[in-house]
Amino acid sequence: MTTKSLDAYLGAWAGADAGRIAVARTIGAIAEAGREIAYLVAEGPLAGDLAAAVTNNVQGEVQKHLDKHSNDSLMAALKQAPIAALASEELDHPYVVDPSAGLLVALDPLDGSSNIDTNVSIGTIFSIMPHITGKNPATHDAFLIPGHRQLAAGYVLYGPQTSLILTVGAGTVGFTLDRRSGTFFLTAKQVAIKEKTKEWAINASNQRQWDDEIRSYIGECLAGTDGPRGEDTNMRWVGSLVADCHRILVRGGVFLYPADKRKGYTEGRLRLMYEANPIAMVVEQAGGRAITGRERILDIQPTALHQRIPLIFGSTTEIERIERHYAEPTAGEAPLFGKRGLFRE
Ligand code: FBP
Q1: Which of 39, 81, 193, 331 could form a disulfide linkage to 29, CB 3.0–4.6 angstroms apart?
Q2: Ligand 1 atom at minimal distance to the Cα of residue 275
């Protein structure tokens, strides 16, 4: 199969535009690190214990060997890119590369860490933003830019295939790594999320901790033909945001990681700057939507570099349905699964 390489795609997009060339070089550096991480992930236990705990990261979460290795690989590659600084889930503070450069990068180097030793898909998520003139790139403040200002975003998915999903603001495209040549080739020219779906993804073990709106929406899904939806639904949950997102890009669906009552989850679990924003840009550019429940993710003014946010994204009709639950909290009351039903505490 002959198709365009990532370099050829980025070259054609950037042309002679200096700003775009800088973005293209930065994406190239991320792809280079992604390829190296993909080879290591594929070695699994032959490469040692990739899931071994190394230390705790800034989130207070256990940092595993592969988390650290992925972060180091991306930093090494991005030191050669025209960026002012990078921020990472694994770093307390931004790492400055060249303060005079025009770009910032935010990274989740290894999303889905809990799946490392289970041979389930994991990934790297990235967001490329402008470095606003006058802002010190060493500060968290320089990164507090709403998601709609991202210049490019995407993820590398380390699964049975290594995929690079990318948007530079002109639709969402997909590349697949050819392991023989080490080249990413364009294999999805225009990713389009199905408008309608019956598939939803949520960690249902947290059900008793959810707010009423999420409980009524999921109750409606579970009620199937017996409830107001009048149709049966299906559930999938990988537990790696990148893998759950990828499934939705390919066959539609909706993903929910809402805020809940657990300590540390009252603002959600996922991070705005390097998880929610890049995924929201990829999803919107593929024709889907991404919200907190009440607001569009890409409109949120960040207040902290490592800020968490409730994240709901996917097929448009399902997002509209969820919005109705937030607008009219009783919309999802089904006889068995509404506030008076099985979902009551
Ligand atoms: P990390 O960024 O720490 O890897 O965590 C994110 C994540 O693994 C997502 O990929 C996934 O959607 C979510 O956490 C799963 O959370 P939970 O274990 O609470 O279901």
Answers
A1: 81
A2: 2
